[in-house]
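Page 37, top half.
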Amino acid sequence: MNGIFFILRSGMPWADLPERYGPYTTVYNRFNRWQKAGVWGKLMDAVIAAYEVSGEKLQMIDSTSVRVHQQAAAPKN
């Protein structure tokens, strides 16, 4: 799971997965099989259900909608 999370977090191609996570084909195949089996949907449903039971409000942010301010990306002088 750490290899899958690393790829999803970094956005890098599967082939560039660091060796410490094992062969990238194995990690990709596991991710793909779990996607087809609905494992990720069940995992999200469980997270949502846990928050509903606790009475807390669940908020998620899609990182594709988060932008860094222009000055944060500029090199320091």
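Page 37, bottom half:
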Amino acid sequence: SAPQVGEVLAAVPGIPCAGEAPVFAEPWQAQAFAMALSLQQKGVFTWGEWAAALGEEIKRAQAAGDPDTGATYYHHWLATLERMVTQKQVATRDVLERTSHAWEHAAQRTPHGTPIVLRPEDFHD
């Protein structure tokens, strides 16, 4: 919802915006943003916790050589999302890795331009 987006924009610095709306270069970035909004609404974390964790993630990446041009912002957002989900015991690292591999399998068999649909067999190597 719009008030929720305004709340996160006020609480979390650095979100790429056009006016008062977040801007996404790719669909996965909007999905990661929406997942964080949903988890915060469910009480998994506060925006203060999120901003601190995201700041730590960005500092770690910069120390490892990230150029900090803004192009990698949502990579840090996604890494923070994965970390918060495991820290708050919403999902384990194993579940995240299995799901990531399942998406890769599903993407490989899906023709370009068609929606990716996960099937049970995607979760097996």
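Margin note: The chain is about 60% helix and 5% strand.
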